[in-house]
Amino acid sequence: MPHSLPPLVSRSLLPPFILVTSLFALWGFANDITNPMVSAFKKVLELDNFQASWVQFAFYFGYFTMALPAAIFAKRYSYKKSIILGLALYAGGALLFYPAASWESYPFFLLALYVLTFGLAFLETTASPYIMSLGPAETATRRLNLAQAFNPVGALGGLIVAKEFILSRLRADEMGVHAYAALDPARKAAIRTADLEVIRDPYLLLGAMVLVMLVLFLVLNMPEKETTYGRLEIRAAVRRLWVQPRYRWAVVAQAFYVGAQIMCWTYIYQYAESIGISNADAVPYGISALVVFLIGRWVGTYLLRFLPGGKLLLGFAIGATAMTLLTIFLVGMAGLYALVGISFFMSIMFPTIYGIALEGQGEDAKFGAAFLVMAIVGGALMPTLQGLLLDLGGSGYTDLRLLGVPEINFSFFLPLLCFVVVGWYGYQVFTYYPLPESEVVPPPPRP
């Protein structure tokens, strides 16, 4: 008889699997409603590209700050309590948009995003290893890819809300930069107040929705192994992880990957604007990138049945590198289409790196997850560097030509570098890095 693959999830564990998987969509929504806010805040508050990029810095630096405390909390208490605390922080950050808009304070908006991502750090540090533990170890990476496939579903929702309820209603964007700048102070202040309220309202609704999820998790039974850990066990776990090049370089690769993803998804609006497409009209291209990303995630999850993760990662990194070169050197709509196409090849990178790094780590997986989530700091640093590149010739996107292309095109050499690093890691995994000699991640006890 032909060998049959074990099931991804048993029926008894479907309820926690489904509800925890919904969290992937929930943080995808937060990520992608925030990406267009770089351009929105730039116009409403009259910022340069570097100042506007602090939206992404505040958002993704929250992951770096809170990932390790989140792992310690999950290790000492439980996945369920960690998720509940994460949802509370997520809702609190979203609701802080109300006083931020009332005070019309850009630093307060940044603080709200920073607190919001404290919650996301708890959720991502907890949800991914928990999903991996809900079944046989040999299907853990496939199971994580399946759960991660719902992340772009939430991201699509975030982009649609950003277009319909924020970008299309911003008066500052509708008027144009020069007309808005030329207004008298009283008129400009009135428009700024109204536009900041437009930005505020979807986040308030998001906060309310997250509170509903919090209630659902309060009543959910989440089976898991009960353990307690002291400081010595934590230190020993960290040492065991960092002596493994397979894990150590996964953290580096993850930082570069997340940086590339956030740059491609944030600056697609500026790329479109450089060829005469407004922010609101550019949202369909952002949506197209997410649809392509979702297709790539499903294709990649299927291919993992036949190819080892390292080989698939290398192949997709080569594809992303090729599409990024086209984005740089094709000026106009062809370059924009190539930028959308990068998303297909980015699709499997995060969960595949994550799965490779945590495979065989046993109980150390909770701390392994923390450092991989801390690597999301790449999404804070890289877009800021891209913003600095865009300011070289002025606050526009085509003020300067480098290597014969506008500065917005040239700035995509940063994602190109990131994909080279990811491809190198994929090659190292299937060529040199063995699995750690430890027990596989055990499934939680049956309810």
From TrEMBL:
Gene Ontology cellular component list: plasma membrane
Keyword Transmembrane helix appears in the UniProt entry: yes
InterPro entries documented for this protein: Lfuc_symporter_FucP, MFS, MFS_trans_sf, MFS_TsgA-like
Keyword Ribosomal protein set for record: no
Keywords tagged on the record: Cell membrane, Membrane, Transmembrane, Transmembrane helix
Location of the protein in the cell: Cell inner membrane
Entry's transmembrane regions: 12-30, 50-71, 83-100, 106-123, 144-162, 203-222, 249-270, 282-300, 312-331, 337-357, 369-390, 410-427
Main location: membrane
UniProt-listed Pfam families: MFS_1
Membrane topology annotation: Multi-pass membrane protein
UniProt GO molecular function: fucose:proton symporter activity
NCBIfam families assigned to the protein according to its UniProt record, in alphabetical order: fucP
Protein name in the entry: L-fucose:H+ symporter permease
Source organism per UniProt: Neolewinella litorea
